[in-house]
Amino acid sequence: MEKAEYNYDIVRSFVNWSILWGLVAVLVGVLIAFQLVNPDLNFAPFLTYGRLRPLHTNAGIFGWGIGTFFALFYYMVQRLCRRPLWSDGLAKFQLWFFNATIIAAAVTLLLGYNSSKEYHELEWPVDIMVVILWVIFSVNITMTIVKRKEEPMYISLWYMLATLVGVAVLYLVNAAAVPVSLFKSYSAFAGTNDANVQWWFGHNAVAMVLTTPPLAVFYYFLPKSTGVPIYSHRLSIIAFWSLIFMYLWTGAHHLLWTPVPDWIQTLAMAFSVMLIAPSWGSVFNGYLSMKGQWHQMRDNYLVKFLILGITFYGLQTLQGPSQAVRSFSAFIHYSEWVPGHVHMGAMGWVSLVLFAAIYYLVPKIYDRKLYSIGLANLHFWLVLIGQLINSLSMWVAGLQQASMWHSLNPDGSLTYTFMETLAEIYPYWFVRALSGIIYLAGVVVFIYNLYMTVRRGKEVPVAAAQTT
Amino acid sequence: MIWEKNPVLLLVLATCAILVGTIITMVLPFAWVNTEADSIASVKPYTPLELEGRDVYIREGCNNCHTQTVRPLVADVLRYGDYSKSGEFVYDRPFLWGSRRTGPDLARLGGKYPDEWHYKHMQDPAGFVPGSNMPAYAFLSGKTVDPEYTRKKMAALNFPYTEDQITGLAGKTEMDAIIAYMQKLGSDIPWREAVAAEIVGELVNPYAGVDHATMEAWEHLYKENCAACHGEHFEGGIGPELDGASLEENDLFEIIYNGVPENGMPPYSSLGADKVWKIVNFVKYYNIGEDHQ
Amino acid sequence: MKSASILYLGVTFGLFAVFAVIVFRTYSRKRKEKLEEPKQRMLEDD
């Protein structure tokens, strides 16, 4: 193979920028976590919780998540297709445009220009930037695959292709709006319809941004890290079709007990439970790939990140369906339990897998040995503990909050006023904010380790950079 | 080997796979939702001032902490009011149901408190409601509404408006707007009359003759629920000064339990009879001193 | 049975049939080698 042809420049750049946006997401997360404890930390109108929370989620999902996927997709697609990118020029433009979009997003969100739709807050001009970005990316990836030199398509490519089309459909439909000015638009859908469209988008953004891309990454980087193939390519194919088919039915589990028609809620609930099968198909595929290789959990720090990552995916896809059941939703929905769930997925599953992939990549794209495996291990434990404290504190908080909200006196009246329930949550919120600092420390160690790798790491020939 | 080696075909098939659930659960419902079947005649579009307020609500991201949909669950209905109906949201572009209740649900907020309560609350929520973690929105009072921009918005949404409503916006602040919006929330259907709690049986004060020390333990109930309007020491404010002697126990109970909506006094039936009786005793006897028996 | 119910049932069975076809196709013995090949080949390139 003529490896020199592979475009690593673009991979390096996307890795660097996405880590920067990831750091922003965590920093803002820590700030808003403390704002819930102490409202005096809402320093100015543009730094209030209501404006910062969308910045936190957008920086996390689009800056860190999508940015890293851009890097990893560009790395994987070249390797799996055994050819350079279809267009280096487009990729370079995409990098520039990606950062312009993220900056535009950050500035407009802080100024209060938002559509109010969760995980789709950006106003229409920035929406258009996102669409352009995605089209460029999709064309480049698809064309590289179409013109590939390797005939069989590995499962990661399947997940990549599904991601391209899935995000496109979701984003375009949910973005439909009537502009009034450059900074303001009104949704094309009204009320209950708007809610149903939004959560069809919202939950499938979880599918197409936070599930299929990290699965593509996982299926590639686990065998690459362990040196043994995945357990079953055919199982991954069945899981693939089932996953992308079932996910789209489940959006309304965010709308249980709302005015959305009951039958949509029921379908959403049923499909959410059915989704356990394809989700765990991938989890089992990961675990079974470790047969005879479990010692690598000790010897290979990459495997530790990946296997913990897929484990959190497994837990996430059990907890998620349980929340999608009407009776449990009635109890737990709108409480702090849900942020606990989301953060297990974001900080556990997605981020752990991305950390592993970046650790695997950096030595290859910089021709350097990783600066310190000890620091990588420290990073692992900090983010793991930070995430566990975060999720656990929010689950317990949510249980207590929900119990108090629903508690009734013998005469049928409410036991607690809203303020009485709120007062009980402060200690949990404080613990959660501290967990954010632990996670932040982990991310700082990660960045330091990468920085030192690039600056000081020992040069090694590409072939030897394989980390085991 | 068909789609396994053909990326374009794979793309097409993947699109088909995601379109099945999409069409059934997202596209088809348009045939049933927001049609004649679920429409409610008394639900009206937003006025120019209310619309501006709604846009401030969106700009400040209030939906990140407040939901706007009451579920048909006992605790939800007791705490917030009648459960939400689809027809109440036909003018909501976008919908603002939210996903988390860091603060309380606001779907039935309209008419619950007098305007003055909201002005004071928005100015400094944490100071006004002890223990609140809501940020202060005092800055909204310093920003005025642009009537011509509002006109454009009303036109874009196809909402009816009069020239007087537009000219009337001159000099209005964003605070005026968001409070007008909050006062409309959930009040287009006459739900308050429908769900007013009935007092069952004869009223008997279960705490008759209670001593001063016991009442002191109930002070927090007064502070959390009453002091904002009636003052820390019954001196009044948004609501009238409280003179325990002037009202009978049972009348006081009925006022607190069912409220006096026309005077801006919200009902506190959701606290339950026991807590309301504690407040009755506290209000009526606490400041008289220990010798009220 | 109402015609709508028959339609729903038809769609449901149709979807199950599609799923069954995918499973049988994927797991048929003659495709085993072809379909498991990519997982070996992806390890070769380094």
Protein described:
The complex is a heterotrimer of chains A (468), B (293) and C (46). Chain A has a domain at 1-188: Cytochrome c oxidase-like, subunit I domain (Cytochrome C Oxidase, Chain A), CATH 1.20.210.10. Helices cover 73% and strands 2% of the residues of chain A. Chain A has 16 helices and 2 strands. Chain A is globular, with a radius of gyration of 22 Å. Chain B contains 14 helices and no strands. Chain B has helices spanning 7-27, 48-59, 74-80, 115-123, 125-128, 147-157, 163-167, 174-184, 191-195, 212-216, 219-225, 227-230, 249-258, 273-285. In chain B, helix 2 (48-59) crosses helix 6 (147-157), helix 2 packs across helix 8 (174-184) and helix 13 (249-258) packs across helix 14. With 46 residues, chain C is mainly alpha-helical. Chain C has a domain at 20-46. Classes of the chains: A mainly alpha (468), B mainly alpha (293), C mainly alpha (46). The interface between A and B is large, with 101 and 86 residues.
- By CATH, the superfamily of the domain at 1-188 in chain A comes out as Cytochrome c oxidase-like, subunit I domain
The CATH class of the domain at 1-188 in chain A: Mainly Alpha
Tell me the strand order in the biggest sheet of chain A: 1-2
Helix content class of chain A: over 70%
Rounded Rg of chain A: 22 Å
CATH topology description of the domain at 1-188 in chain A: Cytochrome C Oxidase, Chain A
What oligomerization state is this entry in?
A: heterotrimer
Q: How many H/I helical runs of chain C?
A: 2
The value of Rg of chain C in angstroms is 18 Å
